[in-house]
Design brief:
Number of helices: 6
Number of domains: 1
Strand content: 25-35%
Distance between the termini: 26 Å
CATH architecture: 3-Layer(aba) Sandwich
Protein name: Adenine phosphoribosyltransferase
Strand order of the largest sheet: 5-6-4-3-7-8-9
Structural class: alpha/beta
Order of helices and strands: HEEHHEHEEEEHEHE
InterPro entries: Ade_phspho_trans, PRTase-like, PRTase_dom, UPRTase/APRTase
Radius of gyration: 16 Å
Organism: Qipengyuania xiapuensis
Shape: globular
Subunit structure: Homodimer.
Catalytic activity: AMP + diphosphate = 5-phospho-alpha-D-ribose 1-diphosphate + adenine
Length: 178
């Protein structure tokens, strides 16, 4: 499937979660077997070309795409979780949200020193979670040079913010506006 055909599988829900937001819903994309497979193939091609030795996915939708790409490439999958979700000792980073803060955590034993880790997620908006993920992975000893997304919302500046964090960005598709 072409990127344009894949883009047509993403449903837009107006005024969610608040008025004025155009929510890009990937459940219609993953609900289409051919579309989901083509999306995973696109991501896997780029992750493979990056030389990544492992894939990190951010909770929650990054788990869907990241785990699928990991399985396709037979690479380790590193779940980056919200605070308090892992049953082992963790390391974490706090990061700012528009109205408050949040925390991401991971098992530091899941990364080997110097391991090249690619980040995979469904959507890049402001880049806050992705930059915090890169910081967390680096804190664990990983090298993080690339992040791959299904959707980029370029008007929100996430790609620029990630580049400022020394992470190259590629996205399968873009949607203008919020």
């Amino acid at each position: 499937m072409t990127p344009q055909e894949l883009k047509s599988l993403v449903r837009t829900i107006p005024d969610f979660p608040i008025e004025g937001i155009q929510f890009r819903d990937i459940t219609t994309l993953i609900g289409n077997g051919e579309g989901f497979a083509a999306t995973v193939e696109w991501l896997a091609d780029r992750v493979s070309a990056s030389g990544a030795q492992a894939i990190a996915g951010m909770e929650a939708r990054g788990f869907i795409f990241g785990a699928a790409v990991s399985a396709k490439l037979a690479l380790p999958f590193l779940p980056v979780r919200k605070s308090g979700k892992l049953p082992c000792d963790t390391i974490g980073v706090d990061y700012a949200l528009e109205y408050g803060s949040d925390r991401l955590e991971m098992d530091p034993a899941s990364v080997t020193e110097g391991q090249l880790v690619a980040m995979v997620d469904d959507l890049l908006a402001t880049g806050g979670t992705a930059c915090a993920t890169a910081e967390l992975l680096r804190k664990a000893g990983a090298r993080v040079e690339h992040a791959f997304f299904v959707i980029d919302l370029p008007d929100l500046g996430g790609a620029t913010r990630l580049k400022d964090c020394d992470v190259a960005v590629e996205a399968l598709m873009e949607f203008e506006g919020d």
